[in-house]
Each structure stands twice: as structure tokens, then as C-alpha cells.
Amino acid sequence: MTGFLRRRAITSLLPLVAVLLGVFFLARLTGDPANLYLPVSATPEQRQQFIEQNGLDDSVWAQMGDYLWGILHLDFGESLRTGESAATMALRAFPATLQLAFSTMLIAVVGAVIIGSWAAYRPNSIADRISSFLSMTAASVPDFWFAIIGVWIFAVGLGWLPTSGVTGGMASWVLPVATLVIRPLGVLTQVVRGAMVSALSAPYVRLARSKGAGDLRVVTHHALRNAAAPALTVAGDLMVGLVNGAVVVETIFGWPGIGKLMIDSILGRDFAVLQACVLLTAVSIFVLNILIDIGYALLDARVREKVSA
Amino acid sequence: MSTAVMSVHDLTVDIETPNGRLRAVDGVGFDAVQGETLALLGESGCGKSMTAQAIVGLLDPVASVSSGSVVLNGTDLVTASRRKRRAMAGPELAIVFQDALTALNPVYTVGTQLAEPFRIHRRMSSRAARAEAVELMRRVGIPHPESRVDAYPHQFSGGMRQRLLIAMAVALNPTVLLADEPTTALDVTVQAQIMALLKELRNEREMAVVLITHDLALVAEEADKVAVMYAGHVVETGAVAEVFSDPQHPYTKGLLESVPVHVARGSDLASIGGTPPDLASIPSGCVYQARCPLARDRCVAERPVLHQVAKGRAAACHYSEEVSR
Amino acid sequence: MTAVLEAPSESRVSSQVALWRLLLRDWVATGAALVLAFVALVAAFGPMFVGDEAAQQNLLDANAEPFRLSDGWLNVLGTDALGRSVLARLIVASRTTLSVAVPAVLLSLVIGSLIGMWAGYHRGRRETVVMRIADIILSFPSLLMAVVVLYIFSPSSANLILVLAITRIPIYLRTARAESAELQSRLFVDAARTFGTRSSAIIFRHVLPIVLPTLLTVATLDFCFVMLSESSLSFLGIGIQPPSVSWGLMVAQGRTYLQTAWWLSFFPGLAIVVTTVSATILASWARLATDPAQRWRLTLPRGRRGRRAIRRAAEKALTPEVQ
Amino acid sequence: MLSPPSPRKPLLIAAVLGAALIVSGCTVANSEYVTGGGAGGLRIVLPEEPPTLEACQSSLTSTGVVLRSNITEPLVERDADTGELAPKLATAWEQTSDDTWTFTLRKGVTFTDGTPFDADAAAFTIDRAVNSDLGCEVEGYVFGDTDLDVKAVDATTLTVTTPEPDPILPLRLSFVEMVSTKTSTTEKVRVPIGTGPYEVADWQSGQRLSLEANPNYWGGRPGYQSVNYVWRAEGSVRAAMVTNGEADIATSLAPEDGAGELAVAYRNNETTALRIQADQPPLDDIRVRQAINYVVDRNTLVKTLFENLATPAGELIPEGIVGYNPDEKVWPYDPAKARELVAQAKADGVPVDTQIRLIARTGQFPRIAETIEVIQSELAKAGLNVKIQMMDTNTQLTYQIRPFPEDTGPYLLMIMHGNQAGDAAFTLDQYMLREGYQSSWGTEEFDASIRDAEELKGDERQAAFEKLWPYEQEKVVQYAYIAHMSAILARSASVSYQPDSATGDEMRLAEMSPVS
What we know:
The structure holds four protein chains of four kinds.
Chain A: H1 2-28, H2 34-37, H3 44-53, H4 60-72, H5 86-121, H6 126-140, H7 143-157, H8 171-200, H9 203-210, H10 215-243, H11 247-253, H12 258-267, H13 271-299, H14 301-308
Chain B: E1 4-17, E2 20-33, E3 37-41, H1 48-56, E4 63-72, E5 75-76, H2 82-88, E6 93-96, H3 100-103, H4 110-121, H5 126-139, H6 145-148, H7 158-170, E7 176-180, H8 188-205, E8 208-213, H9 216-222, E9 225-230, E10 233-239, H10 240-245, H11 250-257, H12 297-301, E11 307-310, E12 313-315, H13 320-324
Parallel strand pairs in B: 3-8, 3-9, 6-7, 7-8
Antiparallel strand pairs in B: 1-2, 1-4, 4-5, 9-10, 10-12, 11-12
Helix pairs in contact in B: 4-5, 4-7, 7-8
Chain D: H1 8-23, H2 32-35, E1 41-46, H3 61-67, E2 76-78, E3 85-87, E4 90-97, E5 100-105, H4 119-131, H5 137-143, E6 149-154, E7 157-161, H6 169-173, E8 198-204, E9 208-213, E10 226-231, H7 235-243, E11 249-253, E12 263-276, H8 286-295, H9 298-303, E13 311-312, H10 335-347, E14 355-361, H11 368-381, E15 385-391, H12 393-400, E16 411-418, H13 424-431, H14 444-455, H15 458-476, E17 479-491, E18 495-496, E19 513-514
Parallel strand pairs in D: 1-10, 1-11, 14-15, 14-16
Antiparallel strand pairs in D: 2-3, 4-5, 5-7, 6-7, 8-9, 9-10, 11-17, 12-16, 12-17, 13-17, 18-19
């Protein structure tokens, strides 16, 4: 396993660098930020001064050299917008995103396993049809509908929950998490259901039944673990989306996460912050992918052998 | 000694298809006797596996038992509650499936899977169940069971996997053991070992074995009695030696003539002309009429019922006397 | 034993007929198919009838409430902030929406699955490289890509489709790779390989048919994701440019009016949801119907009572024949 | 104007959805959730977090609205209603020579770090903001590349000398917020030390900013001991926070955000207009530019999309700015005339079929997308080939500010200009001069009259500026003015506050007090 991890880390390093460089170059293709940060009446001299101060007049290669040199010294540059260190800003926003992502995935996975297995147990039954229909609908409804209507009903109409914010204890988590969980829950339920339908018609389930195993045991012991691999793949992809930041939720509920920060820095051509954010999310996505691979290995001995081979 | 521990009577299984309902098994009946092997013999598609599935209650949801009874130790499995059936699955009735690789759960160790019957029915601790699993593995002839108990199914050879399936089936000394084509996927030498193991276990545990197969040679060597199936019907029953030496149904006869050992050296190897009927187009008279050399008007008009042709023997043919000649 | 279910003797024509009959038996799937056909028809011919109405502004009748016939049937779903008929705009938007979402989904589906299957089939280094590329795209902020396209090229349907397709490729790539990697070790692939079949042929003949249903399911769910992403790009200016209109754009523009004129974003949102759900239902139906091993599920009468009733009826019908 | 949401439907849905939440055991929320502020605290919700509170960046809207006159103060302050300058940290000022102004400073003022405010501090601040290499926003905004010669004559006397005579120097200096001499001169700081009625108590980046009343403030205690700022990007959420009692003031709302009776509309200084890129054919033909003016139906736009919160415009500055012409002439809506003009131009060989881009910035003002669509539709009816292009801010700015991108083809640019300074000179230099940073085109005569007018003072200045507007409409026609805009904020019933035209840039907390 350690050999696998080492190899995986090495092969992951290159894409990581590729992402960083890609972001670096592409970001600079979107125009220099002088117009945004200088008053409209700034003179050409002031403009030139701004560009020089921020090193934007150097060749892209020279800028990249500076940037990489900085990274080696753990210096990720400063934000044009706030003047703060870009690393500080990214690191401050990331925990909020992670908390939201983990709670959302936890609820989505547990919910999807329960609903999906239940639906798969009697495929094509009324219960299956209803749960499939609801999960498909959930997966296709625009998330900001939930957000805004949720605010409208539960905060303004009923006064049960705060409209937004993060400092309100558990209650302030309800609307953001509920908004975020809808789509993953719908998608995952569909995936779990599909995988469970095939798992439940597999010969080993028949064997288990011939041993006198009850319904619950068949579902939880025999089918679920076999159905877990595709669910894990999709859950991983969904989690990647969440780690990249939940822009809608962060915007509407004022959740200080990395998605909003990334968008603001793209729109603000705040390259240093963007690069710091991308570095952070890319690293966590690579870690996440490795965890998923380990998950596959834990689920299935056959994968384990290939991994350690 | 010849106590029937399980009697199957008039078992009928229907299947729902997009084109309507089909009768896959029609009025099948036989008795399984303690310490004896009964072979259900027939070509693929004749309904023999579906009969086995109906008995153990593992039919696909499209198929259902529409009439008949399976009485085991005084309980009719067809009408028994799900709970009752579950309680009987393992200690009283067990089945060995044909494809051992897919039948074993790929994500669990064989030890876990072998221990499962003990965990479910005897509520043993996992350690005790594991000890039983090792013991079972040793009994079915798996070398070094202590070290292999934590291995996964794919790490075993085909023969070993089949042994594991058998071990699982006999774990709780069932009254009746169904073996559904247990050796199909195996090569000949391994086949012989597996069959020997089955016979050994049958004698040791005094089980009634129902062997489902298409292999005449296997039936000749392993079974005491045979029920020949064709298109969902039992067309002939009796002791193996008698049926094979003196078939009373033209289908049985045709089958025997298509096997080299039963044909005199030098003469042509016969084969049965035509193909078995599609379940959707089973004729109203004799099911075998289309391929039968003896077929005549009566066979089209009237379906022959299984009737006694000799002591302990029955055949479903209007002209069974003509067959043996 | 279940050979009869596979109906090997059925000719191609009759199997198509059977497929139709199977579809008609399932009223939910039939409904979904009808909805999709309706949407396609509306997209194809609708704009011809209401094209002008959708552009007809009437600021004095802005945000008129829906479900009133007093302003004529065109305003039955209300009017938008510029007094245009929401119904007419929905109809015109259906064409734009489909002409962006369908190519985007297809493009990412085709590219992603081909590369994914190829990588999964060959494993080894090729697989690693492809998977890492997927990682790169996934961890790349898709919005940045959109802004780059916006800045360097001009916003057009083609660029929009490109941006949407590229960001969705990894999803198919990963799914296809996972399944094909599993399949390549299977017996029938080995068999094909020993016959000397070229790998591309094996992929198309043996791997694709098995992977495709899953990919199609993913694609139908993705359909709605793409429609909504398209709307979020319009906030940056790269999306559909007015006066062209898409469902996503209508949802996005109507969003600020959720409290005062809910119909502006509700109806286009509903159109997206209904279309996606129909596509998903039909896809999951097709997945069962085309899979010989699963097809029987569709023939299963629903509920115990229904099954018993059918059995009784069947017994009555069959009894005289048997005896 | 603002229709409150119908209460029935949400309640019905809520009854269904609510059951789930009751099970999960949620407790009733109260206002403490969001701001954490106790009794007596004022809670304000802004559209975005101030990027920094650096005093020399105070002309950034999102910084200035929190900072100006709250944490730091300038020497003089402009009254938003009258346009007159009022004393703040300077008690008097006069032009002591052509190029020098002398300020008398207030005595007994200290910064919140204890250092005294005196002429040295004022000189330090002005040098830091205007003459240093920090690249301050204020420098570019009000002073251009003019360097100031600042001298502390004694503790309370300050002289400021400009290279050229500057009649409005005190107005320009009203943008310079005074900071303690302990402030770094080599880099910008996030939190300034000022003399204002409040000081920063706690800044939880991303979450909230808390101010506490300055106990040693020279001007008396403000109405609230503490003020909490939070920020939400979504207008409807900001409005909901006030209606829900989670905030007392919410700014930058749109009419449809649902603040209901708590909404307060007020005139800001913003004016919207289409800038016509008049050096590009067919826009170089004055008939085409006139046609564009004839088809913008300003009255209907104001009545419908702007919900009567704006007034049709005939010039780029609103009432209250020096140079505003009260006899504002608004172009009539005359589509027939416009068609005729386009047809005439076409007959003379003007390529009116050339595609013209109508460029706008997303989110520039509420209902920008709708406004653009209305204008595009009207222009198309007049016979012009107009294509809408929405852009993000940075991209749009490349089209708005010189140097303009090359080979753009003809385009119309939606601009919104807010003259924060109160004098038309700021507007004219930028938008009207031929080489103005935000001007595409002009005439020599017009340039000359602008230059002449800017030299003048008092009533002469006003009169000269007034004449420029009709001249622009008749002879230049670079713009199609649309409307003088308004803003909306939501104010809870417990707060007494009257916003003025400067509120968007400078929200004075000292003017807010609890309703007793």
C-alpha cells in the first residue's frame, strides 16, 4: 500500500504542476487588472507604475519564475484587492468550504444508501418509482431556487432559521446544507439504486438467500458492499465539485468559502489569490482521489492486489 | 430405508414475458429419498433448473409457482411463510449452484461466507463460526484451511471454489441437497473428484441429493433414480439402471442413442432430429410430438400423462410399450 | 433455463415491435417519451409560430400574472419584466436550449467515453496519463476557462458549447474508464483478444455496449447540469446573449424576481426539470429494456394484488388448454 | 412601487416543509445569529466586504462606505444636499495666493492611538496619499499626476501649493482621510488609525466587521455604541435580513428585492448614458447618433423598469452638482424621426448595416439586462444592426477607459457615472474632452469651452458649465443620456436615518440613531 501511495503521489505531482501553470497562464490571458484597481481617471504614468509595481510588465516566463520561486519559499504573493497575503486568504476560506462539503456528503451518502437500497429492493415497484422520480427531480432543480425560497419561507415567513451567516450555530447550517445536499442526494440515490439492482440480482445474493439470510442481511451484508464502487466514483466526483466551492450557497448565504473567493479573484483579476486557491483545492482534490482509490481497495480484495502488485 | 423426505407434487411454474405468460414447468412431481441421489435429467431449457429454483424459493421475480406442492419434513414450501422458509434454508434444504465464481461474493473472504450459515442459524460468535468454517474446508478437502480461510474467492481454482460451495451447502447437515449442474464448468478429473465428494458427504450425512444435470454419464454413475424432463414436463422416471437399459419414452431413448457408449461400435451415432419447442409454442397434445418417431394422431390430440409402466417406473407416452422394442 | 427470455429466434423487426409494446405497457416511460417528443417538436416548429411574439416588448404590461386569459392565450403564463409573453419565450428558448445543451452533452459524452474506454482497456501508463488529465480538468476552475474564452474569443454558441463540454468531459472519462478497466479482464474480452481482434474493435463491440447504459444515465442527469451552467455563464456575459433566450437564461434573469414575479423563473425552471426528468426516466427504462438480463423487470406486474389478479386471469385462460 | 411578497403561498409550502425541520429539533432563530451584536448595536448589511480599510483607498466605494467620516475624517467635508463644503478637521480655509490654499486645523483632536492630530499629521497624510509611490486610489481619482507641496506652518496651520492654480483644491482634499503619523509609508495598511467617531474593534475577515464608538471623539457620542457590518451578495437576502430583524440597514437593493415598507429610495449621483463610439462608422455620422437618441424611450424606461425611482436625463450630472443645468432638455422619443435619419444616412452611403455592439457590464445597476434589451429592440426598429454583449467588469473597463482596444468596430457602451466630487469639472475632463480617459470623441471648440469654463469660479463657473450641456446635445452628440438614478436601502423601523445622495460612497454612522 505504501508503494502505491508513493507512486500515486509522484504521478499526481505532475498534474498538480500542470494545473498551477495552466491557471497561471490562462489567468494572465484575461487582461491586466490595472483598470480595475486604478481609478478611471488614472493617468498613463500611474497605470505604468501600477503595472511595474505588480510585476505585470515582466515577460510571462519571468513572472512565472518569480511565482515558482515564491512558492518554494511558501510565499504566494499578495492580493491586489485586499493587500493581504494570498495564502492567508485562501487558508481562511477553505475550512468553511470543507465543513460544508463534508457535512453535505455525509448526509447525501447516508440518505442515498438508505433510499437507493430501499428502492432497489423492489425494482419497478411503486416505492421505487416514487423515490426515483423524487431523486431525479431533486437532481435537476436549480439550487438557487431552494436557497432563495428556503430563505423566504423559513427565515422570513416562519422565522425559524436565520436568513444567512455562519455565526448562528447549528441553525445557520440548515439552509446551506439543505440547498447543497439536494443534487448530490438525487444523483447518488440514482447511482446506488442502479448498482443495488444489479447487485441484488447477482448469483451471490441467491447463494446468501439459500443459506437462509434475511432481507436486511442480504442488502446490508451482501449487496451493498458490491454496489459501493460505482457509488464511490460518483460520490468522489460530487465531492470534488463541493471542494471547489459551492458558489451559489456561499454567495446567497454569505458563507465565507473558497468558491466565492475564487470567483471574486477571477473577476477581480487577483491572480495571486486565484493561484493560491487553486493550489489549495487542487491538492485537496488529489488527496481526495487517493482516498477514493484507497476506498476501492478497502472494498474489494481484487483491487487491493492490483494496487500492491 | 427408502423414506421419501421431500415430495414434489404437480409443481407448475409460470413466467411473465413481454409476450404473455409462459409455462416453464408443468405438473412436475418426484420424491427425494434419504441417502439416495435423484437425478433431474434434461437438455438446457427443459425446466430442470427452474424446478430447483422453485423448490428452494429463489425464482426470478418474473417466475412464480402457480400450483403444486413441495413437502419437506411435513412443511409445504410453496405455501410456507417467508420466515419459515428462511428458517429451513440451510438446516433442512440447501443448494449447490453451478457457477462457483459468480456465486461466491467477491468482496468477502471465503471464511466469512462459510461461517455465515452458522452465524445465521446457530447464532454463533464469529470466532466459533470461523472454527466451523475451517473444519468445513478441511472436510471438503481444501489444503491448509487455516491459512486459506482468509483468502478471497478469486484466489481459488474452479474446483476449489466448487468445493467451497458444497461445504457451504452441507454446513448445517440439510435433509435435502440440491446440486444444480455442480460440475458443468469443471474439467473431467476435477468433475470426478467433486462428484466423489458429494457422494461421500451424502452417505456420511444421510442426505437426499437431487442432482440436476444434462450429463447422461454423470447420471449413470452417480444417481440412484432419474426423472427425465422435456419442455417442462417429467416424461419418464425410475431407477437409473432400469431407465437407461430399457427406456420407456422415445425422448429418453433418443437421448441414450445420442451418447457413444450406448451405441454398438460401428453403427451410426444417432441424434434427435429437430429442436425442443419454444415455451411459447408448446403443442396441446404430447410435448414431444414434433420430434417423436412414433408420433401419430392421438399424440396431437391428447397429452399423455405419467403412468406406471413397471414397478417403480413411469413414463408419459401413449405408446411406451413400442419404445422398448 | 431462462433462454426463452432472450428470445433468440425473434427477428429484428419483431424485437423493435416488442420494444414499442414494452414501452406502451409502461405508462410512466410512455409519458416521458411523449414529453421529450413534445419538447423536440416545440423546439423544431414552435419558434415559427411565436417567434415575433417572444420579442414583442410591452413595458406597460410587464410582469403580468399567469393563468389569466384576459390578455390572450399567449400571456397565459404571464409576461416578463419587459412585457413579453413568457409562453412565447419558453417556446423560442427551447430551441436555443437544446441546440446548446444537446451538442455540449454529446460532445463531452463522446470524447470522454472514447478516451475513458481506451484508457481503461489498455490500463498501464495510458490509463494513468488519462486519469491525471481528468484530474487536471476537474481541479481547474471552470469559470476561469469561461472568462478566458470570453476575453479572447467572442461569446458564441460554439464557444459556449466548447466550454461546457470541456468541463464535463472528466465525468464521462472517469466513469467509462472504471467500467472498461473492469471489463477488460473479463473472459469474453480475453476470448476476443485471443482471436486476434484489434483492440479498437473489441472496445466498440464488447466494451461499449456494456458501458453505454451507465454513460447514458450519467449524460441525462448531466443534461440539466449543463442547462443550468449555461445560465450561470450568462452572469459573466459569456452565456446566451440577449435578445436570444434560453431556459437557463430565463431562470437566471428571473431569479431576482422570485419574490415578486415567481413565474419568470419558475416556468423555465420547470421546463428544465420536466425535460431532464423525462430524459432520465426514458434512459433508465431503455437501460432495462435493452439489457436482456434485466428486461423481465419491465414485464413484472406492479404490486402483489396486481400480480395475483393477473395470475388468476391467466389461470382461467390457460386451464382448458392444458387439460 | 415595491410589492410585498404575498404571505399565503410561502406559509402553505412551509407547513409541509416545516414538519421535517421540527423533527430535526431546530430552535427559533433570533437576530443574534447573524451579527452577534448585543442590545444597542447597529447592524448593517452591505453587498460586499470592504477589500481593505486603507484610508488612501477611500474612493473605492466598498471601502469608503465604511471608512469615510466614520473611522477617519477629512479636513473638509462636502454636504451632499447643498454641495457646500463644511468644516471637519479644518475649521477654516482660504486661497492665500493663486496657487496656495491655507487651512486652519481643529484643536484638541487626537487619533485613536493617542497621537495628536496637527498640521504635521495632515501633511503626513497628504504626502502619503498623493505624493508617495503607494499607488493610492485617491491620488488617481482626484489629483491625477499633480503633486502637491504641503507645509505645516505651525501646529494648526497647513498650506497646500499646487503647480497650477486650483480653484477647487479644498473639494479635492475632502477625499483625503487623515491618518496617524504612525501609519506605514512604505505599504498600505488594512486597518487605519483615524480620528472618527468609531474605531475598528474586530474584523473577522469573510464574516463581519465590528466598530466601537471612539470614547475620545471630539464631536460627541454617536447614537450607537457599536456597529456591526456583514455582507451578502444577494439583494433579496439583504432585504430579507432587515425585514426579518437580523439587520437594521441594508444597502444597494433593487426594487424587486422585497424590502416592502422598509425600503427607502433616495437619489444618488449616478447618471446612466450610452456612450457612442463616434470615431467608428456608421457612428461617425451625426444623424445616426441623433437617431440613437431619438429611440431611447427615457420616459417609459423610467416609469416601468426604474419604477419611477429615476428621472429622464439630458446631461451627465444630476442636480446638486456644480454645473448642473436646471433647464435640462431631454431628447423626445420619436422613432419615426429616427428611422428617417437612418434612412437619410443610408442614402448618403453611410454603412448603417454595419453591426454595432451594445456593450454593458453585468450587474452595473438593477435591471441592466432588461434595460439593454429594451434599447436594443428600439435600435433595431430604427434600422440599425445592434448586437448585445454583456461583459464582466474588467473586460468592460477595457472598452470604457483609454487606451481603447483596437479594431473593435462600432460600439455603444452603457456607462453609469457618479460624480462624487460635486463639481462638473470631474465629469467634463473624463467624459467630454476629446482625449478624456473615458471619452471616445469630441470637437476642438467643445474642448476649448470646457477648458475656459473650468478656469472660472462661483456663479460664472456655474453659468459656463450650464451652457456646455445643450451644446453637447446639439453639436457633439457623443452620448445618449438615459436617466438620473436612485438607490434603495432598507431601514428597520427602530433606526432613524435619512440617506442622501452620497450615502452610497459614505454612510455616516453619526447620522444614525435609535428611534426613541
